[in-house]
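As practice, study what follows.
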Amino acid sequence: MATCPYTWVRAFFSPNSSTPANPGEPAKNLMVRVVRDGQQKVRVALPARSARWLLDLIPDEVVEKIRAEDIPLEAMMLDLSQQKELYPRQIFSLSDPSRQVDIWLE
């Protein structure tokens, strides 16, 4: 069980969900999932508006790997910060031999 009760309840009711409950409506949550060595280590739901300062939430080592993969992180952050409403969508995924990081809006 997750140590955060909110995270545990969210995971209980939508353990594998990465799609919105109401398509076409603004996103309610920024979802972050980290799987390391085949085991889910992190699954967190934050308010969707958190996506606007995503760079502040991602560990520096992960930011470096994202940039090394030529993912246009700064352009994505600019785009997210300028949107009046945030809608459900995949923001990005990063895979390396021991870890998978997925971030999306739902």
Remarks:
- The two ends are 22 Å apart (CA to CA).
- Strands lie at 29-36, 39-47, 89-96, 99-105.
- DSSP finds four helices and four strands in the chain.
- The first strand starts at residue 29 and ends at 36.
